[in-house]
């Protein structure tokens, strides 16, 4: 423009030609100056505008990258609930890809539109909602729990044009919380059940033992003998229930051994086929290598039997039960979803059926004692509670997987052991009755009067000389006044004041030749945890019959003085209640 103006002016034309040359030069220079200032100003503005645009573009890119990389689901909708933004975390959380939802109505509110519309109206009024826990649906229809925060989006004039939502997945957290609460509940119920079982064991010891002694004095065919036999039968059933309560509460007496679960299942197979009947098929799938664990074989057999019987009852029209074993590794990702499991090598024992399955409400109470879905008279509700206790007391874990109409699978995980398994023994022959009698002197210390009276009668009937004390101080006084040898101390473990271990310690210092046998309604492991006994000492589990008492007394007397090798345990064919390894029955639910 300056060149054109100068050219026209030199030729004597244009708007800058004045009457005099100086005037013409002045007007031309003024115009050129105006052009220069304008050009410089516009150039500076243009540079600043370019810089602002670049900064805005960088900010947008950074924001887009942050939203894209966010581990939380972030999505935006307009006032009509049309999706305008959808980050990869939202894709992963809900299952819809961005190209499936952007430009379309928000799909995750279909199941709870009323709730979402109330929330939407609050945000459109300018309210910010933080950390609301809600249930949403994924693309595949499965539910998930999210923590949702929603805020309004504004335009340049300050009007609300849409909503920005940030969602965090709480599904795993809530599942872990539920598992933790369930574990706490089971622990509390277990303590209650164990306490009840302990008290009942004292009562049943007297009932069962006294009834057995009564039957020995009656004519076997008399009505009184039949009545006594019915009492004894009922007491044995009650003792079985208390044993199941002790199993659930993890307070039963165990004799753990290193064993191969494969061999255990094979030994049970014939009996399991008899239990399930002809209309149910039994399949076994065993691990190719030995599945070695450390557990009580009798109790593990009981757990398998209970699960198989439970599967049979879930298939009233027939079906298939599958028992399988495998050696597996539980990795951290699995453990995170299955509290309180720990990573490591395990033997998995699974029992599956093709039965009716269970809903979520039933699964939530599955292992609780006395919970059952069967009609009255068909079970006690202790079958699965017993399994739970056996597995927990063996250091393992158990989970149930089931859906209505799709059967049920129980999976037991027991720590894998690297040692070679011991051979499973067949039951030995019962000890002849003539070998159970004796003439030694026995000091009985028991705080329960009825148990004390019954124990004295049973031992005196076997030929023993019996001294009886109701507590520790009385036992010490009796022993001090008795000049002749005391061959055996039979003491209750848990007594008020001086417990059985303290009584034994005082008397053994003065009578080193004396043997010691403890009796208790508590399980051996609980007594050991309380520091009352050493593992090598002998203990008689309540309730016990006269036969079991006689057998255990003879074993301890024959084993050597207290402090020597541990007394042998009764074989699985020992008569009556109180055997260490009870044969499996089928009270499963």
Write down how many β-strands occur, each being a DSSP E stretch of 2 or more residues.
17
Q: Output the CATH topology of the largest domain.
A: Heat Shock Protein 90
- Overall mean confidence score, pLDDT: 79
In the CATH hierarchy, the architecture of the largest domain is 2-Layer Sandwich
Helix content: 40-55%
Largest sheet report: 5 strands, antiparallel
CA distance, first residue to last residue: 102 Å
How many domains? The number is: 5
Gyration radius, to the nearest Å? 41 Å
Structural class by SSE content: alpha/beta
CATH H-level homologous superfamily name of the largest domain: Histidine kinase-like ATPase, C-terminal domain
3D structure, described in words:
This protein is an alpha/beta fold and 589 residues long. It has five domains: 2-66, no CATH class; 70-169, PAS domain (Beta-Lactamase); 175-248; 257-415, Histidine kinase-like ATPase, C-terminal domain (Heat Shock Protein 90); 433-559, Rossmann fold (3-Layer(aba) Sandwich), CATH 3.40.50. Helix content is 44%, strand content 20%. It has a five-stranded antiparallel β-sheet, sandwiched between helices. Strands 7-9-10-12-11 form a five-stranded mixed β-sheet. Strand 1 (73-78) and strand 2 form a beta hairpin. The radius of gyration is 41 Å and the shape is elongated.
